[in-house]
Amino acid sequence: MGEAGRDDGGDELPEELDVSAYVGPYSFPDNRRRRFPGLLYLLVGAGLVALFVVRGDGVLVNEGLLVAGLGLLAVGGYHWLAAYPLRVDETDALAAAGRTVGFAVGHASAQLGWRGLRSRPTWRLLLYSAEDPPVSRGLVLVDAVDAGVVAHFVEENPEDWSEFTPEQRKTTG
């Protein structure tokens, strides 16, 4: 039991997961925001290296400060290089994927991921054909910077929906 006057009505969803508070489409944050912390790392790293060069080797200014400065310069440089702009939204990625798979798209799912050492943003789209039940499905990777198709795979849908009536398929899928 809870304390007197305390409402123990049960669990509640966090505010950001509350569907009733939906205010519009979600906008993915742009990767260019990595440049600000990258710039801070570069400035602090350069300051530490400069401090080591000016003050020499002592008790408070020693090789550890130089190593930390060089490390911050490396991390800052990586942040700056990995700050690709997110120019393609999920709707544009879906259009590019639909042109690639060769069938009319019904249900689809999009996920933003990153690839490569520099973390280039890439949309991963799972597409089903528009028939009921879907005859084909495909997986398409679309570059989120220039909308180019990175890779794609299309196959016949291996799922067997024959045991369900059309009404059951609408409630199941």
Shape field: elongated
Q: Walk across the major sheet and give the strand order.
A: 1-2-3-4
Q: In percent, how much strand structure appears in the residues?
A: 15-25%
The helix/strand order is HHHEEEEH
How many DSSP-defined strands?
A: 4
Instruction: Tell me about the largest β-sheet.
Output: 4 strands, antiparallel
Unreliable stretches: none
Q: Provide the number of structural domains.
A: 2
Question: Approximately how much helix is present in the residues?
Answer: 25-40%
Going by CATH, the architecture of the largest domain would be Roll
Number of continuous helical runs: 4
Our measurement of the CA-to-CA distance between the termini, rounded to an integer number of angstroms, reads 41 Å
In the CATH hierarchy, the third-tier topology of the largest domain is known as Nuclear Transport Factor 2, Chain: A
The average pLDDT score comes to 82
CATH class of the largest domain: Alpha Beta
**What radius of gyration results from the CA coordinates?**
25 Å
Describe the structure.
The protein has helices at residues 35-55, 63-81, 90-101, 166-172, and strands spanning 105-115, 120-129, 136-143, 149-156. By secondary structure, the chain is an alpha+beta fold. Strands 1-2-3-4 form a 4-stranded antiparallel sheet, with helices on one face. A hairpin with a 4-residue loop joins β1 and β2. The protein is elongated and about 80 Å long. The model has no long low-confidence stretch (mean pLDDT 82).
